[in-house]
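I am writing to request your help with a piece of structural work I have in hand. What I wish to show you is a protein chain and, alongside it, a tokenised description of its three-dimensional fold. Could you please explain, in whatever detail you think fit, how the structure tokens follow from the sequence? You will find the record immediately after this paragraph.
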Amino acid sequence: MPATGSQDLITSARIALACLDLTSLNDADTEADMARLCQRAQTAFGPVAAVCVWPRLAAFARAQLPVHIGVAAVANFPHGNADVAAAVRDTVQIVQAGAQEVDVVLPYQALMAGDDTTVTQLLTAVRQACPGLVLKVILETGELQTPKLIQRASQLALDAGADFLKTSTGKTPVNATPEAAQVMLACIAAHPHAKHHAGFKASGGIKTAQDALMYEALTAHYLGAAALTAKRFRIGASSLLGDIEAVLGGQTDDSPTLPGGY
């Protein structure tokens, strides 16, 4: 990628802020943690797209935020088990909490074992359980590893009605990579139905506006520059916000680092 000028980085930071899913997924997260997260989501430079939290804290987060900031919560997370009923229970809890978005982990171990049927059953059941909500399907690309498996996961997720393909849970050794992103974005662009509306979410290990710029460029290449809005592009992260604020001129020395995120 060519050298980045300061104006390019500022533009990237603005896009990243508007498309950021500010995330906290600690096992021990409390309502006090969520109150801080929701306060962080409303920056001097504008709001993030959404906060991403556990289902048990989604209702509290929704009550803390203005309507223009979404609440996403995770289902079947982070293990991606093949238990359809459990994934649906998570999803119903998210719907009942008043959240706007569901981030569900595709049962990637089943996919790796060649069990496409279970993958489709789980994703279809979750899609049916959250009508009208944005559904992001987490592929866990660092575990799938090969382009062939990432492509297959992408295809099954889009066929099941995913609104976004998302790289990672942020809980595995390998998270978002440009190589995985390219496979996922190419699948979206080639899908006969999803290519007009589905989006891409990079998550895991994205800490700087420079990191974000790479995924923005890939998304623009495959889906067009018009896709660089929260409707079709997201970044899942916790520590990225501080760097965004630094690029945009904010003072971040006193900004807390949010643990347990991407």
Observations:
- The beta strands are 20-23, 42-43, 46-47, 50-53, 70-75, 101-105, 134-138, 164-166, 199-203, 233-237.
